[in-house]
Amino acid sequence: MAQLLAAALRRHLLLPHRFPLLPSRHVSLSTIHSSSDQSDIEYGHPIPPAPDDDGELTSFLRRISHASSVASSPKDALSLLLSSSSGPSPSSPSLVRALWELRRDPEAVALALRWGDECSATSGAEGAGSLPAEAWHLAIWSAGRAGRFDLAWAAVRRMQRRGVLTRRAMVILMERYAAANEVKKAVKTFDVMERFKVEVDQSVFYSLLRALCRSKNIEDAEELLLARRKFFPLTAEGFNIILDGWCNIFTDVAEVKRVWREMSNCCITPDGTSYALMVCCFSKVGNLFDTLRVYDEMKKRGWTPGIGVYNQLIYVLTRENCMKDARNVLSKIVDEGLQLDVETYNSIIVPLCESCKLEEAREVLEDMTMKGIVPTILTYHAFLKQEGIDETLQLLKKMKEDGCGPNSDTFLMLIDKFIQLNESGNALRVWTEMRRYDIRPGYAHYMAVVQGLIKHGCIPRALEYYDEMKGNGFASDPILDKEFKTFLLANRDHWRGAGKYNLIPQRIKHSTRRTRIP
């Protein structure tokens, strides 16, 4: 805990500090290192921005760090904080911001929360239970995200004793169990909500289903939907959650069609969202016939397509080389008074780039910018997937100028692309560019480079990056360890120096000239 506390304090003191608005959409992550190596997920509420003078927050973090380092137990640390007269009690905004800074250390979050709770409980001004709900929610999320469900439940029980337990707190706990693939425990948490005197209704039930679908447990979600039909009657909204899982999490057309038939068997009439999801699914896989069929049925049933449905139509028409029809849809959007957006143009640019029709894609991009529509990072990624190294470097500069990246995912995509093209030299050029854009390589970046270099026979160079990866605190890979050890044993006479190649212990240090690997 002390190391994570120190890291949080260093981040706060050294970085130009502004707390970002977190994404409103939830995402899931099954491992510590995602494709972009992001660690802040599934928390959809904005954190209050820190003022220019962060003295109160800095003092708060220092006091938490000091108490954690000198105390022998969390209980002693809390007693030290409560008895300390070195500063005022934490204010609610400062507490929430501190919890966000400490989010990677659930024990520190629990300590900070209890300190704030005890201070508010003994405060005569505001009375007991005056902590903002956001503080409780953030603590439960942080604990569950780290797999410390004991701390999460401790916060829930404390909220109950204070009489401030919310449905949102229990939903966060269910979501965290689902993200950890603890399906039974997520369902059990839902079932015990009434014992905690928290009202359970269909919206909470649907929150559980969404959490299960996001964690790729769609079959469990569907089974639960049907099993609880006596308590929560089947509706189009409930089936839409399952459809969304099969459309956007897995994009499994066979399952989508099966769920659609199940809706009919249960006498559930699809609504506009149901049709929109079906159009999205069929367009993703390039099924032009079924896309148009569902679109026509949607219109016949009296549902008015939104801009999202039209964007999907444009995408599949462009992908199937029906450009004239795609442009007719563009005209129809304007005629119906809808506003063309960047997603509309991306629906043309992406399939054009996938078909290597880069000139046509550039013409669409130029038309988009002339109309004042700013490209997104997805727009640039579509071009980057097809361009050579020189054009790629120019596009990266353009992205920077437009304030549209590049980000960690951009460079991971480029490294993978050039590795697959057997252009390891260009992959390493991209690696160099990544550092120039102040993007720190993550676990996924290192593994992509190391495995790519091994694939192309550049094992010594791969070993350099592997050692750098471990030196930056990332976990080693047992398979790579074995492969590198085999290589070094087979080439002991040539690669004898202890140096960075530390998989084989050396009794005597030798000074050798390292061979340069192209």
Structure write-up:
This is Pentatricopeptide repeat-containing protein-mitochondrial domain-containing protein. This protein has 518 residues and is mainly alpha-helical. Among the domains are: 306-405, Serine Threonine Protein Phosphatase 5, Tetratricopeptide repeat (Alpha Horseshoe); 407-490. It is built from 26 helices and no strands. The protein has helices at 2-14, 55-70, 74-83, 92-101, 106-121, 133-145, 149-162, 167-179, 183-191, 202-214, 218-227, 236-249, 253-265, 272-284, 288-300, 307-319, 323-335, 342-354, 358-370, 377-384, 389-401, 408-420, 424-436, 443-455, 459-471, 478-490. Helix 12 (236-249) runs parallel beside helix 14 and helix 20 runs antiparallel to helix 21 (389-401). The longest helix has 16 residues, at 55-70. The radius of gyration is 27 Å and the shape is globular. It starts with a helix and ends in a 28-residue tail after the last helix. Mean pLDDT is 84; it is low at 9-42, 124-128 and 497-518.
